[in-house]
């Protein structure tokens, strides 16, 4: 993107400074710029590592010594790096990504402000759509710096606006550049992913980015500052993702089929692999969107963690968690095995709900998603010989209310659907139940 931007501005007649750490690449891009520039004197090549403050100062001084002014600063340097927070090398990688993606931008802006004030110039920061929608588990450091960069853009727009300096940022989605190779995607995989996930059904190209940078750097945007423009093929508004527990049968199955009809990407899960496949195939008959099949026992915390992890690895987001798992076992307080029965019902209906909801919330925060929970009126009206179920349902009701209170300021919708003991059969006989629930999303 940086090379494409440099060549584009050289073609327009601008004086261009080409910068990077690799001398050969810098020379190659500078040569390409000179091929299209009005004169080769309009192109300055500077090898510099933006992690080094001395290099950054030298870069600015050489620009002023050569051209005498600065009108536009495009902060395009960025690295990805893949490492989970608990990986041994994470801290070292984190520090490096912060230095390149964020600290260098702060350093450059601080040095060029006097020159931009004199020219009434502008700054364009190249961020990422990852700033708004977290990507893979191993991209936390990258996404963090891009989120911070967007906020820096807004802060600088406020501070520098009175000086006549505009500051904006762009948020590219998947763009076919060499950085794709660093992200574990091949070009072919990136294209396939975008065809599946992006409404425009294609990845972005350097030209898509350059045109927006050109606009933000031109007088055509003279009254625009402090904004972050997604250039992502519509990925933010692409198909939503729903994970439905207990979706291999009953209510969960009916809800999955209803969401398939309205274009959701789905995660079908349960303990019976055969039933999971059957429901997934039914969903595929109703929609062209991807359906992920995951066998998982919600009483096993490790399997629940993997369920969430696989969902995010496959889709990169989560919009809806629908908790549709319920069991009831008729019993009496005098039964010899009453404690086993009670724990089985409570752990299935309540504990598993708490575990998966806690794991899902960080992802729902980024999409302003929803938690939907199937419960029963037995939490309010006790049933004879069903006390473990009644106790568990009252606990679910209270958890829903507490969670809704906690999440209301953070944009997550939390709902529960209470009904009688005929809930499952009613879903089977009356599709309007699931349609009504879909409309609440």
UniProtKB/TrEMBL annotation:
InterPro entries: NAD(P)-bd_dom_sf, SDR_fam. It comes from the Eukaryota. Gene3D superfamilies: NAD(P)-binding Rossmann-like Domain. Belongs to the short-chain dehydrogenases/reductases (SDR) family. This is Uncharacterized protein. The lineage of its organism: Eukaryota, Metazoa, Ecdysozoa, Arthropoda, Chelicerata.
């Amino acid at each position: 993107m940086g090379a494409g931007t440099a060549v584009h501005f050289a073609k327009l007649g601008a004086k261009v400074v080409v910068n990077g750490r690799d001398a050969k690449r810098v020379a190659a891009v500078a040569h390409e710029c000179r091929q299209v520039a009005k004169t080769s004197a309009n192109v300055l090549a500077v090898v510099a590592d933006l992690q080094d403050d001395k290099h950054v100062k030298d870069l600015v001084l050489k620009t002023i010594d050569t051209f005498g002014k600065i009108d536009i600063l495009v902060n395009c340097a960025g690295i990805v790096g893949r490492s989970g927070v608990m990986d041994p090398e994470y801290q070292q990688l984190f520090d490096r990504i912060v230095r390149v993606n964020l600290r260098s931008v702060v350093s450059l802006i601080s040095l060029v402000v006097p020159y931009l004030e004199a020219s009434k110039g502008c700054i364009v920061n190249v961020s990422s759509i990852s700033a708004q929608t977290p990507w893979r588990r191993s991209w936390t450091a990258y996404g963090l710096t891009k989120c911070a960069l967007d906020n820096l853009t807004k802060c600088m727009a406020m501070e520098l606006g009175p000086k006549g300096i505009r500051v904006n940022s762009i948020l590219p989605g998947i763009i076919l550049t060499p950085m794709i190779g660093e992200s574990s995607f091949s070009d072919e995989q990136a294209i396939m992913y975008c065809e599946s996930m992006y409404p425009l059904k294609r990845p972005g190209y350097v030209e898509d980015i350059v045109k927006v940078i050109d606009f933000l750097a031109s007088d055509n945007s003279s009254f625009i500052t402090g904004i972050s423009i997604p250039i992502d093929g519509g990925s933010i508004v692409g198909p939503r993702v729903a994970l439905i527990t207990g979706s291999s049968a009953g209510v969960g199955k009916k809800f999955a089929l209803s969401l398939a009809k309205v274009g959701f990407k789905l995660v079908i899960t349960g303990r019976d692999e055969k039933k999971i496949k059957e429901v997934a195939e039914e969903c595929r008959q109703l929609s062209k969107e991807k359906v992920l099949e995951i066998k998982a026992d919600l009483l096993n915390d490790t399997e629940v963690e993997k369920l969430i992890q696989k969902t995010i690895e496959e889709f990169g987001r989560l919009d809806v968690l629908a908790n549709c798992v319920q069991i009831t076992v008729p019993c009496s307080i005098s039964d010899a095995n009453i404690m086993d029965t009670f724990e089985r019902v409570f752990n299935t209906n309540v504990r598993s709900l708490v575990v998966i909801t806690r794991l899902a919330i960080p992802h729902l925060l980024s999409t302003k998603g929803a938690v939907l929970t199937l419960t029963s009126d037995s939490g309010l009206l006790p049933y004879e010989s069903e006390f473990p179920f009644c106790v568990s349902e009252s606990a679910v009701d209270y958890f829903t209310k507490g969670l809704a209170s906690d999440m209301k300021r953070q944009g997550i919708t939390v709902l529960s659907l209470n009904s009688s003991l005929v809930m499952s059969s009613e879903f089977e006989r009356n599709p309007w139940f699931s349609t009504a629930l879909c409309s609440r999303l």
